Structure of ABC transmembrane type-1 domain-containing protein:
Amino acid sequence: MHPKTTKERSRSVNFTYPSRPDVQILNDYNVTIEPGQTVAFVGASGGGKSTLISLLERFYDPQEGSILLDGRDVKTLNVKWLRSQIGLVSQEPVLFATTIFENIAAGGNEISRDQVMAAAKLANAHNFIMSLPEQYDTLVGEKGVSLSGGQKQRVAIARAIVREPKMLVLDEATSALDAESERVVQAALNDLMDKTRMTTLVIAHRLSTIRNADKIVVVNGGHVVEEGNHAELLTIEDGIYNKLYTIQEEKAQEEAQAAASALKEAELGEPHSQSLRHHSSRSVNSDHMEEDKKASLEKADTSKTFTIFDAIAFSRPERSAFIVGIFAAAVMGCALPSSAVLISELVATMTTNYTLYKESNVQSALDDLKHDVMVYGLCYVGGSVVMFLAAATQNYCFKYMAEKLTSRLRDIHFTALCRQNIGFFDEKKNATGALTADLSTNATKVALISGDSQGRVVQAIFTFVAALVISFTTGSWLLTLVMLAVFPFLIAGQMVRMHQMKSSGHLSDELSDVGAHASEALSNIRTVVSLGLENSICGKFSALLEEPLASGRREAQLNGLALGFSSFILFATYSLVFWYGGKLVDDREINFKELMRTLMAIMMSAQGIGNATSFMGESDNALKAVHTQLRQLSVVEKVTPEVKAKIESLVPFVPEVAKPDGTEKRRTKFL
């Protein structure tokens, strides 16, 4: 199919958006676009101009009627092929966070560098690209932030035409630009349409840009009300186009007169401008400010190391809940060793009485056993009630603290982000997806080492102390000393495991790139599908996942080894303690009840301490998270100097105004 042969026709189209089914957008919409024509659509906002493009690209399908392309209903065409025949340039150009070359090449399949340069020349973008330090390999930043509005739009135009589309669609391509950028982009578009003569659809808001269109379609209330070229529509005295054109021309003349008057006043005030400069109490050199900002950023990165105590300090407003929670945690800490005493007493009593009954056939031994079991059972039930109340209180108090801390840190983090300098967001690591992920997860990570974790630390301390007291006073001091001697081995095993868990925290950093890529693609999904980049985007997403998956596999293997090592140390220690305890009983150094008290107290305490300190694997990541948040806040404070100045100016600001003849004069003076 030759680029000049595409004919588009909309026949009796009726359409409402799924999100607003009660609002009729297009109502019996009929329009025909001949091959090679340049057709402009004008009208009030909400009249249905841009909706036709959405239907043509098949973002939606009409409820009634049809869109025909060379006589075929677009519903019968392959969607990917259909979109490959259309070059779309939107009002807000969407560029991806990659190089200029890759952005333009995204417009087609297997696009060569020569094709990219040819498209850039047609779009009047080649010269400014070649003036950049890296030329076509220049990174444009997230959403093309390193380029001006006019430059981004010309790159978007080059991307739209590099595929040599059969139809070019310009959806208010210059409406968001300033006068100078609009002039440059419009000149590029006019030159492009003259050279290619491809079928072109133009959605316009400034009627001066579409005077040379082959056909102008006026849309109002969802249907076509006027058709014709510029001259024909001006002959309709009460026509909508005639009124719109007259209003815009009058406004342009008023702006031109205001600009001329402002320029004249500026020229008259020129001799006095020098004396006014002395009224400023402080002058700021922009280059020096940028250097100061960079130095402040670097200094803020290393000026302070945030510790767990800094994180805990943020929970100071909830100190009353903290005190109550600490008391409840102390009760819970003593509960496990106390329950160990009850269990050891019960096991020892059952063993002794049942042995006595078997050996001596003493019936009273069984009767006493029933009574003792009942007493110990009731004591255990009473202890369970106390543990329930203590656990509920501890959980509530520290969870409350954690939620308050999370909310407070998110507020601080978001405030810091809002106050960052624009250059902060230009950095690749500060992509929108990564920042929103940090905002979502960092505060939660910090809460892991505060709130509930503080309660578990207190619980572990009281558990350990209570276990030692019980073992030394009611158990075997010899066996207790042996168990204390092997405690370093237990700690070593736990430290290996915790160290491995800390080292696996870098996976979140690798996944932040994946999140940023997904965020960029989903937030610009219309551009992605109109360019047919679905497979490319998904392929890059899969490629970005490969490294985290490989790292995750390695971390899983190392974590398995670390867990196996810590388990080996634990059970090897238990084996040693059981052997030595049995030897002490055999040597009549201790009795069975003392053995059980010591073993149960220490073993159950070790289990409780392990559970209470399980958060330590995340402490490193949590401290990094709070460091990130507070560092951003400190950076803002450092790069926002307090400036006290008196500024006076007799030279007014002169806006950019296009004159009726198409030229413009701009003069801006700051004092």
